[in-house]
Specification:
Keywords: Coiled coil. By secondary structure, the protein is an alpha/beta fold. The protein has five helices and 47 strands. Helix content is 17%, strand content 37%. Strands 25, 27, 29, 31, 32, 34, 35, 37, 39, 41, 42, 44 and 45 form a 13-stranded mixed β-sheet that branches. Strands 24-26-28-30-33-36-38-40-43-46-47 form an eleven-stranded mixed β-sheet. Strands 1-2-6-5 form a four-stranded antiparallel β-sheet, with no helix packed on it. A hairpin with a 5-residue loop joins strand 20 and strand 21.
């Protein structure tokens, strides 16, 4: 095409662009109801004149000549954008009215910002750089907000806790939230209505209203309407907080629907109990203020609770970690387990290579009821069906009473003896009078005080001896009330210990009871047949 102007600048509507020397790169322009349409030019087939139908820049798109309009409407019809040049295709200044007419030709009804347009024209003329600006803007619709439940309590960690060295313990998620009565737990914000928008053609743009999301209230929750239209949810009892999927409640039991594993992290509740629907996997822990129920199995995990523990699927720990309770432990079986209980330990099946210590009784009287390997220490008795095996597996069954005063006095006795030994090294042997006579006059006051301390220690040691004698006598008679009962076979290799006496079986016994004889201070073996 033979050009009639400078293609680096825009042509105005009706401007002669040039004369076509070939028809290949041209497409006929169209107009719908007076509104220019792409490619924004016309071609006279007789004269081969090419004229612009809208202000714009010439451009080749796909090998075809097109005019890129100076004034354009955004795809969402919310703004009119313009490219402002210092002069046009023929070298003439471009007045503001050119942009006003182009906007009107696009059927835009909103007024343009003339101040902004004039400033852009001045900048383009001063700098020679085209300016991009928004001539006018509609109003976008404002959709309403959906109803929202906001938690007011500190959230439990969802990933893990970061240590001082920067590493992350992915199992440690912190404690599950718990509250006292009257604690605000959550606030519900009701949905809001949408506000309609306005496009550049003056048409309304519809807006969505927010959707109400009703809150399902569980136990121990009260609703408190607020003046701002929100609703506050408060706890009516002490317990664990459960806010999930639009429901809110306070319970004394934390329910875990599946396993305790990487999806849950370690479980820590500072009030109430825990109910696990699945199993507790290796390396994880549960700590509860009250009771714990596990419907599956417990692997090599750490469990600590102040109440009872019930494991319906059994315990298999591989000799690692520890289960400690302030109450009873009950399980289907125990294998390579390490258990400590303030109450009884009740195992419905067998106990294999496990180490159990309890202040109550150890009972394995159903199913196999066998204790094979390991060690059991109980204060109130051991009742099982079978001990050891025909292969002579070493199995220890011990009755040891829990007398805290005895331990305290024994430790105090040891401490006093150490103090006496140090004083003897300083003072030497002899009566107090003889020691003082050998002491230099300037040191006698200090030595006299050390002698008085030694006398008080000796007096306290005598008191401890008497009290230990009384407690040991009490222990001797109390031991007689705790028995080791083996209702079926007691195999060789089984070791029975009661108090400070022990015996190892060298032959198989059937249906036998081992008890303490306080008179003889020996273990008695009594047949149950």
């Amino acid at each position: 095409m033979d050009l009639s102007g400078d293609p680096d600048y825009p042509a105005m509507a009706g401007t002669l662009l040039g004369f076509a020397t070939s028809l290949a790169p041209f497409a006929a322009g169209k107009s719908a109801g007076g509104t220019p349409e792409p490619p924004y030019y016309t071609l006279d087939m007789t004269t081969r004149e090419v004229r612009a139908t809208a202000p714009g820049m010439m451009s080749m798109v796909g090998g075809v000549l097109q005019i890129v309009p100076l004034v354009r409407i955004s795809k969402d019809a919310l703004s009119v954008q313009a490219s402002v040049y210092a002069r046009d295709y023929r070298g003439n200044p471009i007045p503001p009215i050119t942009y006003q007419r182009a906007t009107k030709d696009l059927k835009v009804t909103l007024p343009i910002d003339m101040h902004r347009l004039n400033e852009a024209i001045v900048r383009a003329q001063e700098t020679g750089v085209p300016q991009e600006l928004v001539l006018c803007e509609g109003k976008p619709p404002k959709h309403g907000s959906n109803g929202k439940l906001e938690r007011l309590l500190t959230e439990r960690e969802t990933v893990g806790k970061r240590a001082e060295d920067g590493s992350i313990d992915y199992r440690d998620r912190g404690a599950h939230p718990h509250v006292a009565e009257g604690t605000p737990i959550a606030r519900y914000y009701p949905p809001t209505k949408g506000e309609r928008g306005l496009d550049v053609f003056g048409g309304e743009i519809p807006a969505r209203d927010g959707t109400d999301r009703p809150v399902r209230t569980g136990d121990n929750i009260r609703e408190v309407p607020q003046e701002d239209g929100t609703t506050l949810y408060e706890a009516t009892a002490k317990g664990l907080v459960d806010v999930s999927k639009g429901s809110i409640g306070v319970s004394t039991v934390l329910l875990i629907q599946g396993d305790v594993d990487m999806s849950t992290g370690n479980i820590l509740v500072e009030t109430g109990s825990v109910h696990i629907k699945g199993s507790v996997r290796t390396g994880f822990s549960i700590t509860a203020a009250s009771h714990i129920i596990v419907e599956g199995a417990v692997e090599s995990a750490m469990i600590n609770c102040n109440g009872d523990l019930e494991v319906r699927g059994g315990i298999a720990m591989e000799g690692r970690n520890l289960i400690r309770t302030g109450g009873t432990i009950q399980a289907a079986y125990a294998q390579d387990a390490v258990l400590e209980a303030e109450g009884d330990v009740i195992i419905n099946g067998g106990i294999t290579n496990s180490f159990i210590t309890c202040k109550g009784s150890v009972l394995a009287q159903s199913g196999k009821g066998i204790v094979l390997g390991g060690s059991i220490i109980a204060a109130r008795g051991i009742e099982i069906l079978e001990a050891g095996s025909e292969l002579g597996t070493q199995t220890a069954l011990t009755i040891a009473l829990d007398i805290p005063e005895l331990d305290v006095l024994t430790r105090e006795q040891d401490t006093i003896r150490q103090q006496q030994q140090r004083l003897s090294q300083w003072l030497g042997n002899g009566t107090p009078r003889a020691i003082l006579l050998k002491t230099a006059e300037g040191d006698r006051r200090i030595v006299a005080e050390m002698l008085r301390v030694r006398a008080r220690l000796e007096e306290r040691l005598n008191e401890i001896h008497k009290e230990l004698g009384r407690l040991k006598a009490l222990n001797n008679h109390s031991l007689a009330r705790s028995h080791v009962i083996i209702k079926k076979e007691a195999h060789p290799g089984t070791r029975i210990k009661i108090g400070d006496k022990a015996m190892r079986l060298d032959k198989k016994n059937v249906a036998v009871k081992y008890q303490w004889d306080p008179q003889e201070r020996q273990i008695q073996e009594i047949s149950l047949i």
